[in-house]
Amino acid sequence: MERILTTDYVFHRDFTKEYPIISYGKGIYLYDKNGKSYIDACSGAVAANLGHGIEEIAQAIADQAKKAAFVHTMRFETDILHLLSEKIGKLAPEGLNRVYFTTGGSEANESAIKLARQYHKDSGKEGKHVVIGRWQSYHGNTFGSLSAGGDIKRRQPYTPNLLPFQHIYSPNCRHCPYNREKGDCEQHRDWSCVQDFERLILQIGPENISAFIAEPITGSQLGAVAPPQDYFKEIREICDRYDILLILDEVMTGFGRTGKHFALEHFGITPDIITFGKGVSAGYAPLAGMIASDKIIDSLIQHSQGKFIHGYTYSGHPVSVAAGLSALRIYERENIVENAKVMGPYLLHKLLELKEKYPFIADVRGEGLLIGIELLKSIQPSAAFPANYKISERLNELAMELGAVIYPGSGSIDGVAGDHFIISPPLNISKDEIDELIIILDHSLKLLIQELKEALAL
């Protein structure tokens, strides 16, 4: 007798919702068990960078599983581990060559935080342990990465358990707490968010600070907000001045998402550690990691007999590494990063046309195929929709009914108020597919504004 699928035994993230059961995917589309298709306009969790149903990657996974499905990297290595490490290392800036693998972005950032601590401890700077992050940032859900991150809603339930890390404001010029306009920020290199960084360092004491961690372009918490062009150059100079390691979280932005191999290329700086994930395997297997600078590795060799005092069971898992190696070969062969660079402006142009049509779209911004759309009840002055309306979530529900899924978010003004959503389709999307997505999004926004007129008398 055929067993009927139920949700009785599934631990859902949200028990108040019912989720479509996906049977298969092909290209930018997902298909549920009833045959309904959905444009994956957010690449899942901004991870499925090559879309779905790629047999080449599936075959690479199967081939490796037949050879050696598991190898504990504290005892053994594999050829594919070296091949993928070399490919990633060659994409990174000069001086960052050593790659450490994990299974997810949270683990990658947790590893980077621990590596920074060991580096300073090995160097005789025992006091350096504090990590500075930014409000309205996201670095993962493990306690270390959650402590470094500035996602207020995710932090609140676990506040008693969090580490006493410190935070500065993210460079969100539209909603800067110091009321600095973006044009002013671009013209003057005295941004308050940078000044706050140095001020906080001096208050805590440089001898106590290990690292500063930031997303080059802030993803889920702000909706694809990039800083002023020279922001990271200022941050890099301050980190150097006070012997603080700079960790750039490229979990969302790495591997072509912004039209560059890494988003740091937009800003012309070199960090001490890069963390990555999501796009490295295009979502086909759990894979993430970090790229460490030569000076950190040299310190490990000199002071710790070459040992990083850390590890995960599934670090460098052969099947996941096989998926990553296959994905990166496709990126290279099919010039995927260039496609993101070309399709990004086209998508942005189409979304800006929607902004002209719908007055509650306050802003459209982003790089490559990572684009954020901010929604406000009133543009001048900026006024958020009531939080209980969950505007971005409702828009996603309407879009899913019409056949597309987006990445909803909230808290774009101050971490609590403000709605936005991200459009981040697979990097091999075509113009015709973008046009199809825009039609669905247009219809969804039209339905949303009809609801808003009734609910808020707009």
How far apart are the termini?
55 Å
Please identify the structural class as seen in this structure.
Answer: alpha/beta
Helix content: 25-40%
- What topology, given as strand order, has the largest sheet? 4-10-9-8-7-5-6
Number of helices: 14
**Averaged pLDDT:** 93
Strand content: 15-25%
Question: What does the oligomeric state look like here?
Answer: single chain
Radius of gyration: 22 Å
What is the total tally of β strands? 15
How would you sum up the major sheet?
7 strands, mixed
Elements, N to C (H/E): EEEHHHEHEHHEHHEHEEEHHHEEHEEEH
Shape type: globular
Low-confidence sequence ranges: none
Question: Can you summarize this structure?
Answer:
The protein is of the alpha/beta class and 458 residues long. Helices cover 38% and strands 16% of the residues.
Explained architecture:
With 458 residues, the chain is α/β, with parallel strands linked by helices. It is built from 14 helices and 15 strands. The chain has a seven-stranded mixed beta sheet, sandwiched between helices. Strands 1-2-3-13 form a four-stranded mixed beta sheet. Strand 14 and strand 15 (419-423) form a beta hairpin. The N and C termini lie far apart (55 Å). The model has no long low-confidence stretch (mean pLDDT 93).
Outline the fold blueprint.
Blueprint: E1 22-26, E2 29-32, E3 37-40, H1 43-46, H2 55-67, H3 79-91, E4 96-102, H4 105-122, E5 130-134, H5 143-148, H6 152-155, E6 166-168, H7 182-187, H8 192-204, E7 209-214, H9 231-241, E8 245-249, E9 273-276, E10 288-293, H10 294-303, H11 318-333, H12 336-357, E11 361-367, E12 370-375, H13 391-402, E13 404-405, E14 407-410, E15 419-423, H14 431-456
